[in-house]
Amino acid sequence: MEKFTVHTGRAVPLRRSNVDTDQIIPAVYLKRVSRTGFEDGLFAAWRADPDFVLNKPEYAEGTVLIAGPDFGTGSSREHAVWALQNYGFKAVLSSRFADIFRGNSLKGGLLTVVLPQPVIEKLWDMVEADPTTEVTVDLVERQVRAGDLVEPFELDDYTRWRLMEGLDDIDLTLRHTDAIAEYEKRRKPWLPVTQ
Amino acid sequence: MARTMAEKVWEEHVVRRAEGEPDLLYIDLHLVHEVTSPQAFEGLRLANRRLRRPDLTIATEDHNVPTENIFLPIADPVSRTQVETLRKNASEFGVRLHQMGDIDQGIVHVIGPQLGLTQPGMTIVCGDSHTSTHGAFGALAFGIGTSQVEHVMATQTLPMTPFKTMAVNVTGSLKPGVTAKDIILAVIAKIGTGGGQGYVIEYRGEAIRALSMEARMTICNMSIEAGARAGMIAPDQTTFDYIKGRPHAPKGELWDQAVEYWKTLVTDEDAVFDKEVFLDADELSPFVTWGTNPGQGAPLDSVVPDPASFEDPVERAAAEKALAYMDLKPGTPLRDIRVDTVFVGSCTNGRIEDLRAAAEVIKGRKVADHVRMLVVPGSQRVKEQAAAEGLDEIFKAAGAEWREAGCSMCLGMNPDTLKPGERSASTSNRNFEGRQGKGGRTHLVSPLVAAATAVRGTLSSPADL
Known about the structure:
heterodimer; A: alpha/beta; Aconitase, domain 4; B: Aconitase, domain 3; Aconitase, Domain 2; Aconitase, domain 3; 17% strand; globular; AconitaseA/IPMdHydase_ssu_swvl (chain A)
């Protein structure tokens, strides 16, 4: 996984709430067996509309998505994270993310940052007034900065460390294979096996 | 210390706990399907890893499969590749797979309970958000992304940070014609699609206790639509009776030991939930959605709401967008909404009791001329059982299409989709824009409402017939 420390880039204002994973990437785009190429499906239904924010040339270079509340609700498809990353997004800001989407994003190195809704509104106003506004998402300082706005955000130390080091969860867990084997000895005797 | 059921199951599965790190939880059962697994298997292959416990893993084909002509090659080449990839992976990694045509094939959340693989006190995961379904047995069951699928494959564990706990207390008793689906739609409308975010919900109260296992699965299934990753119901005699005798249920002395343990999986009387919600079952009536998220629902007896009536500006804007997409006008009686399609099926309402309920309503009646009705059993066994009871003949005589098992129109990955502008009454779980096909409009309903709607052609309950 790519390390994440500080990212600065232009931002895309997505003024919608409850953007579910079927909007982020509709099911018909989930048929690939690779982890790449999902950018075509990103917001597929909305991109047919020339007025949709991603179709506006002034937001073409955006790498930070500023989303409304309850972003990523619905299905567990990690393809939603891959679609955003394949398209070029490095971070998503929202006042509330759905749990599974948030978990998936932080596993895969897409930084999802929770900010109060008034801050989101302010950021929307700023990047709408001037689409060249640069937004910095600083994981080291746990801060979002844009213009004169400096806003701290919370992220637990463990996840922050893992993202900054670009560490893969599986490698970390495999350090504890002995504990797993020990646990397996004390599992209930009636638990089912599939074969 | 007094604990909730969810906390008890969690504690029982902690492999490793360290200050400042997530708990490492053991996973008792991993369910796999074709859509969210290929990249995980590929990851294992690249890292030269094996599955730690193929014997705690089971796979099926459900999301993508056609529900007609299942013995012909899948017409869509991309879908076919995905299904064939699962077959290759299952064989290479030693995973038991129920493929199309197999009697145990079906929607992953239907086959687990059916095989007796879903049992109280287990941790169950799947790369599918509706894994919450299995919580109906008192299991801690939740959906995971593909990175976590790979993690479970490689280690049979997951690092997890603890959830908060929420009690949803449903008191009283349901009136005739009101079902588990109406309870859960009402719960979601009450707490909102983000209301359960960060929580495991425990459904409690006399109205929940009175439900069958299948009805309990309908409720837990849609916990995710309330934003919760998992929903649970304490195991009781109804649970034990359902599991007993199933292929993977404990037998003999182990059965007695298991039941003894399962009985301890109840929330202690003095345990405290982080949040409590109350609902009176006596006051519920058939519930339908009018908007484009599952929280945008109302009693069938009411009207399409006016966005101006929402105080919260975010909710108001969401309602405006939803009504524009759904092509609905405020004040329209919900009963006047005309549909083109009725879908009975999915992991929410594709079980035998759901098909029985819909069949009873439609028996001796006809599907309205302008309506197409699709009945898709949740599994091949459900299909066989329905056929043994003559339900297939009832549906066909009414003019409905009787299909093979799969997820079908719930998410429109296979050829069963709505066309742009078409409107469905659907027993599934999501009414998102385009969920059932680009430009399609979805109203979530119970099997009873679905069947009555098929007959009248507008949103209806059996009482309207």
